């Protein structure tokens, strides 16, 4: 059902393992965002679909980079989603305005910032990903380096930016996402259910503007509660006005003892 609403110590070092280079070059990264909530009874099938898309990579030529983004407007209906944030709701609202959706809802999937669909509709999701493959994309490279036990340095380089509309600017956005999370829901529409989630966005930051002649860098905090082997760093470049995502990349974060 649609819900309409308003909007380690120092001894530990961090090692970052990039996606296989050959595979990444052979497959075009496509960003799939799922706006979801633990308070929405229609959302678990969409969460499952996102997880399946990430794990099985079923679209030839596409490297699906998925992000689960939890909105906060369900929190007043009996269950507070611990992964939710007002910033994610605001992000969904911006998509709603640009994509001409009457009102925000869950579950909603957005593919490369250009196509929105009901988040549990597998057929529509596949079709949107295939369409995204035909559009121009930049090549994004993301490097993550340990700075301390609780901070990571992220560097994002972009080449081959497509021709932009006059006056359009491109933001560099970095998401820290954690996989393998679950919740035992004790109230609300999903009362009594154990919910599992794929690639929940823990932190989303715009770190600069994409240009062809420089690398964008930032330092981002890491929460001590996050399970390092399950965290990935996703970088993408997004047109500020149109909201089109024109390139993405991801690397995985692992804990390693030196």
- Give the DSSP E fraction (strand runs of 2 or more residues): 35-45%
The number of helical segments is 4
If you compute it from the alpha carbons, what radius of gyration comes out, rounded to the nearest whole angstrom? Answer: 18 Å
What is the overall pLDDT average? 89
Quaternary class: single chain
Instruction: State the helicity in percent bands.
Output: 10-25%
Which structural class matches the secondary elements? alpha+beta
Query: Strand-and-helix sequence, N→C?
Result: EHEHEHEEHEEEEEEEEE
Distance between the termini: 50 Å
Give the low-pLDDT segments.
3-24
What is the overall shape? globular
Give an overview of the whole structure:
With 258 residues, the protein is an alpha+beta fold. It is 17% helix and 41% strand. The protein is built from 4 helices and 14 strands. It has helices at 21-26, 43-56, 86-98, 122-133, and strands at 12-18, 28-36, 62-70, 108-111, 115-118, 139-148, 151-159, 170-178, 181-184, 194-197, 200-209, 216-221, 231-239, 245-257. The strands form 4 sheets. It has a 5-stranded antiparallel beta sheet, with no helix packed on it. It has a 4-stranded mixed beta sheet with strand order 3-2-4-5, sandwiched between helices. A 3-stranded antiparallel beta sheet has the order 6-7-12, with no helix packed on it. The longest helix is centred in the N-terminal third of the chain and has 14 residues, at 43-56. It is globular, with a radius of gyration of 18 Å. 40% of the residues are buried. The model is unreliable at 3-24 (pLDDT under 50).
